[in-house]
Amino acid sequence: MSKPLYEKFDPVSYLEIALGLPTDASVALIRTAADRAYYAAFLTCRDLLKAKNYISPQYNRYDHETVAETLKRPDVLGNIGNNENRLRRSRNCITYDTRILQITHNDARSLAWMIATARDLIERVQKLPECKSNTQLS
Amino acid sequence: MVIEVREPSSISHYSRRKSPSRLSESTMAIFPRHSKIYDRDTLYFVVGTRKITPGLEIKSYTTSSHSSARLFGELCIPTKRMPPEPMLSFQTRQSASAANTIPRLELFKIKFPVEFIDIQLVKSLLGLLGIEILDEVLKLIVSTSKDRGLSLNKVEVKSIRDYEVPDWRYLLVLLHFDSDFETADKFLNYLYGRLDILSSRLTPEKSELFQKVFFFDVQTTL
Q: Which residues on chain A are in Cβ contact (under 8 Å) with B222?
C-alpha cells in the first residue's frame, strides 16, 4: 500500500493554527485563521456527530446542511447550534470578500469571536451523549 | 408594526393568486386584477382593516385573529403615493390618509419594523406553517428585546439560497441593533433559550420546520 497523500487528522487542530498567530500577523494569516476556525468547528462537529451516531455524513459539501440542521435539533444543541451557521457565513465573507470588512456592514466577525464560538460549539458537541434513537438525518 | 416590501410585484402576484372566496375571515385587501395602483418605488404597509374585492366592494370586518398568513395578505395598501384611478374610486378616506402616516396593526402593540427581502421567496420557502412560526418568532424577538431594554431597529427576513450546497434554502432572520456587536451577540445567545422554549411548544411538524429552516444573526451599528 502506497503512502497516503494526507494522513488522517483531527480537525480540531485547525484551531491551533488560529491560536498560534503572531501578534503582528499579516492580513492573509488572520483571514486564513478565521477560515480555519470555522472548519475546526464544522469538521469536528460533523465527525463527533457521526461518532455519536447522530448523522451519516457524506464527507462532501452536502454535510454543511446536515450539520447545520442537526446541531439545531432539540436533542442536540437546540438553537445555540445556530452559531455554526453564523460562523459559516462569516467565514464565507472573510474568505471571499477581499475588500475592507466592517462588522457593521458585513457578515464578517472578529477572529477572536470566530475562535471562541468554534471552541464553544466543539465543547458542547463533545459533551453530547451517544444518540441511541434512530433519528439520523440522511 | 410596519412591513416594508421591496418587491411589490410579488404582492400583486400573491393577491391575484388568492381568491377572495378562500379568505373567509380575511383582512386581505385584493387589488383589482388589471388596475395599476403602484410602481416600483412604492412601499406597502400593513393597515389590515378592510377587504377590497375586485368588484370594488368594501367590507368591514374584525381583526381579532392575527396570524401571519393574514399578515402577508395585508401588504396591499400603497402608502407613498396616492393610487391613480380607478383605485381612488373605492379607496376609503381612511386608507388614503394612511398614506402619510405609519399605520399600526394589532399584531404587535409596539411599532416595530420588519423588512422582507423578496417576500415571494420567503413565502414559498415557509409555506403557511412556516409563516405561523415566523409570526411567533417575531413576537418573541420584539418582546425579548423590550424586556432586555435593547434598541432593536428592525428585523430583516430573507430567504438564503446556499451557493455551495445545491437546493439548500433557509430563512435568515437578521436582528438590527443600535448597539455594539458584543451586546447584540449576547442578546442573541440569550434569545436562543427563549427560542428553545418556543420550539418545545410547537407541534412536532412545526418544530422540525423551525429547526431546519430558521437561522438567526445580528447586525449592529457600532
A: 104
